[in-house]
Description:
Shape: globular
Number of helices: 9
CATH superfamily: P-loop containing nucleotide triphosphate hydrolases
CATH class: Alpha Beta
Oligomer: single chain
CATH architecture: 3-Layer(aba) Sandwich
Radius of gyration: 16 Å
Low-confidence stretches: none
Structural class: alpha/beta
Bound molecules: adenosine-5'-diphosphate
Strand order of the largest sheet: 2-3-1-4-8
Amino acid sequence: xxxxxxxxxxxxxxxQAQFIASHLSIPKISTGDIFRANVSGGTPLGKLAKEYMxxxxxxxxxxxVAMVRDRLSEDDAQEGFLLDGFPRNVPQAEVLKKMLAEFGxxxxxxxxxxxxxxxxxRRLAGRRTCRSCGKVWHVLFDPPAEPGVCDAxxxxxxxxxxxxxxxxxHRLEVYQEQTAPLVAFYADEGILVGVDATGPVEEVTQxxxxxxx
Length: 213
Ligand code: ADP
Ligand code: ADP
Ligand code: ADP
């Protein structure tokens, strides 16, 4: 199955992508995670992406699209994948469509995680990420047993630079201007399904899986 998850920053895309991808035995491909891995690894790609990410702006399309093309060409993505954080604007969606057509395939479904702005701000403001394994926690909604320490691997938790209040506001604007139009784009393609993303993580996963069966 070839899937895309869309939704505002903080909707729970990364959290759900992990469970959905593991239920379906397909790789989760998160452009945000790939960029962050490159930033912390100090690669040329990371150096380029960092200034955009710190501001909450989108990394330029040429860069992002080349990275996704490489990733989708890897062996593990040939039978299916779950894209999290890509595409993020209509031009990226158009390139993705062409790219998949070149590979002789197409997207099956786009899941839109639907949550209101207040909930998004609550989720982003309390998000903590593990420096070692990348797992995402929340100080109130999904706290680790010991504050600041990842239950999964013992790594140190940190708050992403772009999860500060100023940047959160800007990222929500960028979402409304550039990413929200994808909802109409994929509705036109007839492959968009909305999923209520409020409530406990497991319930959201169940709603998403119900759509996929
Ligand atoms: P969130 O968890 O808030 O949805 P991500 O982890 O997906 O955020 O993305 C973090 C940052 O990485 C974005 O603000 C942007 O700078 C960059 N980024 C991620 N995906 C893309 C993309 N498809 N196109 C351009 N920039 C991207
Ligand atoms: P690792 O040691 O796990 O490969 P990296 O920091 O090299 O860590 O990369 C993390 C992720 O980013 C990997 O999934 C890798 O495929 C991806 N990645 C790194 N650089 C690029 C690139 N230029 N194009 C596409 N994917 C990349
Ligand atoms: P996105 O990838 O869309 O930016 P994340 O998956 O990183 O979103 O989730 C943002 C924050 O909200 C994280 O701290 C996560 O633990 C928390 N979160 C995710 N899903 C839920 C949920 N259903 N209820 C409460 N908090 C959630």
